[in-house]
Write a structure and sequence with these properties.
Length: about 240
Amino acid sequence: MALYVIGDLHLSLSGNKSMDIFPGWHNYVDRTRQNWLAKIQPEDTVVLAGDTSWGMSFAEAKADFEFVNALPGQKIILKGNHDYWWATMNKMNAFFAENGFDTLHILHNNHYLVEGVCVCGSRGWLFDQGEPADQKVIAREAGRLEASIQSAGDIPEEKVVFLHYPPVYGEQLSPEIIEVLLRHKIRRCYYGHIHGTGCSYAFNGNYMGIEFRLISADHLGFDPVRIETPGVILP
């Protein structure tokens, strides 16, 4: 059993927003499938860190979720800035249940215990096309991250945070998100959202005692990366 993560699948199996037109994204759906099948086992869990489907509604996203559900393992899905299909927890869970998507689980103000670690997270917020972050939005996202971490209470397992937006990018910071991470003594944070040439500005390393890592799909070569868990030391 193992825990993996990948973000930004940007699926559009029933729409017209295929990412194939962008450099590095050629044949990305098949590449994702092949890489996934080569390493993920049915007993494993994969965190999908936002921007899973381009669908604007459940109907438009259904084919994308059929694709994801059919892949091995359990999947924990958090919200990205392009997940327009996103709704209330009750509506999303009902949609999954109605369609037999029994490997899909939503991360929203909650947590999951997986392989000896506590999976927490939210969308987060930093910037959008260079515009300053809206304070109401960032306060809300910091609150959601707080709720996710607090939902785990005082359990002894390490709380590992997964976000869509990067808390650190180049010289930009999301202080409200960083404050939550520091206050709860989070040691590891994985994030997506950054693509293409922007990946060269992404922060991968230790910042104020927190290890950050970019896990957007194109940055990973559409290959989910394994998370170190108790008893598993990765090279």
